[in-house]
Amino acid sequence: TMPSPLKSSSRLVGVFAADLEDLRSPRRKRLVYKWTSGSDGMSYGAGRRYTRVSGDEDAGQVVEQDGAPELDSAPPEDSLLLPPLDIVPSRKVSPRFAGKLSPLGEGTKKLPQALIIGVKKGGTRALLEFLRVHPDIRAVGAEPHFFDRNYDNGLEWYRELMPKTLEGQITMEKTPSYFVTREAPARISAMSRDTKLIVVVRDPVTRAISDYTQTLSKKPDIPSFESLTFKNRTTGLIDTSWSAIQIGIYAKHLDNWLQYFPMEQILFVSGERLISDPAGELGRVQDFLGLKRIITDKHFYFNQTKGFPCLKKAEGSSKPHCLGKTKGRTHPNINPEVVQRLRDFYRPFNMKFYQMTGRFFGWDE
Length: 365
Ligand SMILES: Nc1ncnc2c1ncn2[C@@H]1O[C@H](COP(=O)(O)OS(=O)(=O)O)[C@@H](OP(=O)(O)O)[C@H]1O
Description:
Layout: H1 9-24, E1 31-34, E2 49-53, E3 63-64, E4 80-82, H2 95-98, E5 108-109, E6 114-118, H3 124-131, E7 137-139, H4 155-161, E8 164-165, E9 170-174, H5 184-191, E10 196-201, H6 204-218, H7 225-229, E11 230-232, E12 237-238, H8 243-246, H9 250-257, E13 266-270, H10 271-276, H11 278-288, E14 300-303, E15 308-311, H12 336-357
Parallel strand pairs: 6-9, 6-10, 7-9, 10-13
Antiparallel strand pairs: 1-2, 1-3, 2-4, 5-8, 11-12, 14-15
Helix pairs in contact: 1-9, 9-12
Family: Belongs to the sulfotransferase 1 family.
Binding site for 3'-phosphoadenylyl sulfate: 121-125, 202, 210, 327-331
Protein name: Sulfotransferase
């Protein structure tokens, strides 16, 4: 039997409630982008403010509504500009944002029936890109961040972001920060109690290093991984308020979701297997979504240069497609003692997580 590191679900929530507040706070303001001139032919009138909906990485300058620079990491690579709802664009905002476009523009925009809610650096972009190959899935390219940062914009704003779908097609989006957003489960449940939730999880130690690597790529002057990890290096006390550590305590975050959703409505995808056996993991996801298994091993090839599986044909294209250079970064070397200390720290939480999900992810072998 598995050890049970945390006695009850209510205790899990209680212990970390304050930390969750910390995680959310820097992200709360709406991100806006002041429109000046567009290179893609959009013209909605100069000087208007546009809500920026971010993707996972790098691109453009993100400014908060009050003009202060955004604080923490992940400016989007595939972020896009959205017009305010009262303006009808003469052209599509961006094909990437609109997801798969129906050639005749038919169909209706629906709220998503399935969401990839996390985890940050788990492999969420890879999963969404792979799923988009399925003809019955329509997905938003960028991260809407509706249930964390943009909730005040309302459900109609959110629905407008969605691509048009035909009968039987599933609308999806991915925003990895939902998994650690305290209010997200209640908000998603209020949209629809039937929403299917997908979480891509990855070894929390590697995930933390990946998270740190991303921040480092944008802010090369940040302290070392080691110094951020410990509250006290001598005693080895780990700083669980550091988001890179905090996010990996999956059992705690999951406990919050289980207050609103039954386990059957949440699918856990192994980030490791998504790399070693993408077709296998995609098979499980298609089953979970009630879709025919159309995405199979025939869709993938292993790109030696990239070091990752890639699509033989990207959605809407006939060309091979690997994820961009912000996916699959080289991680810095971390002192093995620090890694070991982190493994020891996460082990009981991982065991609890395996127990809760009924799946053994093998991070502690
Ligand atoms: N096929 C494929 N190609 C490239 N990268 C892949 C793939 N499958 C999974 N991964 C892993 O995805 C990691 C990034 O995770 P996310 O997309 O969830 O990151 S983010 O939170 O949206 O920024 C990224 O993490 P790093 O390797 O640390 O960069 C990859 O390991």
